[in-house]
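Hello again, I could really use a second opinion on something today. I've been staring at a protein lately and its backbone has me curious. Please have a think about how the structure follows from the sequence. I owe you a coffee for this, so here goes:
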Amino acid sequence: MPRSLVTDAPPDTGPDIGPDTGTLQALLRRYDRAGTPVSCIPLTQGLLNRGYRLTTTRGDFFLKHHLDGDQAAIARQHNVTLRLAALGLPVAPPVARTDGTTVTVLGGRCYALHPWVEGRHRDGGELTPAQSRKLGALLGHVHTSLAKVCREETPDGPLAPLGPAEGPGGPSEGPGGPGRPADASADPQDTYALIEELLGLVRRGGGSRPRDSFDELAEHRLIERRALLERHAHRRPADATARGWVHGDFHPLNLLYRGGEPAAIVDWDRLGVQPRAEEAVRAAVIFFLRPDGTLDLAKIRRYARAYRRASGADPAELGAAVHRVWWERLNDFWMLRWRYQLGDHRADPGFPASAALTVWWTRSYEAVRDAFTD
């Protein structure tokens, strides 16, 4: 199964036909033994990048078009992944050009060429207990390895901290909401205002189309969430303090498996400084979410124990992270914002389980915390 990339993509603005033949030829001339282009198939269209399966006379590659165009930051990101690969982490670092660099600028656009990785995505339901342990250990090793290779980087340097991606990993503005620092906890007053705005959009059926079952569910969950937040507003956590270098978007669609083993961690665009334990909790919640909106706590317990051993994080750090991620979820409506504010329906299938999780997690708060800290 070919790899796919998921970024925090905005609504589709039209077909992505990719670079033209002249651009591809000019690009490949920068590389030794890359061949000449045969086909270039678009894979994703996102805010942070666009990806293509590029087939040449020498084989298959993954071509990434970085939309932000910050050549220096992209090169530093590449340098980090190259150093992680040298430590034995499963990554897919860029292919070096003839001159040893890894970023090509053509027509004002930044491109990078990566080896093509054959593999498939696996969610937590497909992982065995042993593979769940390996997943936790892998993320722990990622965090400790990043601490080594990013020692010379500074949080306010080119690889600046970024908020979690809006999409599988969380809201693009971070848990604090628009204009709030990523480490700040969400203000329930802001959430109440957002709920009212979304309820108004939901009750109008999203515009000219008739109301449907999704609108009914969305209205129910918004009203339910408002009541839930009112009961728990006093539990707003303090701002996060324990920070470290993290992948920034670690979830099933950014991890490729070959057989039962991880083959490549991909999409390092959100590499930055964030609370590391929160990434561990957030990743587990995404991997081990069941279709009915509950979490597989048995697998999470194995995952979390392995993560703590590999990263050196103690139960108190994980416990604080569980509380902050729960609060983030309680205040988060990115799927409804995509649908009703942006007109983007791609996240709709995930809404029922995600919305149910928040209710279940609140009721099962102690059991979830224990799974991460036991």
In short: The first strand starts at residue 37 and ends at 45. The two ends are 37 Å apart (CA to CA). Confidence is low (pLDDT under 50) at residues 1-13, 155-166, 168-178.
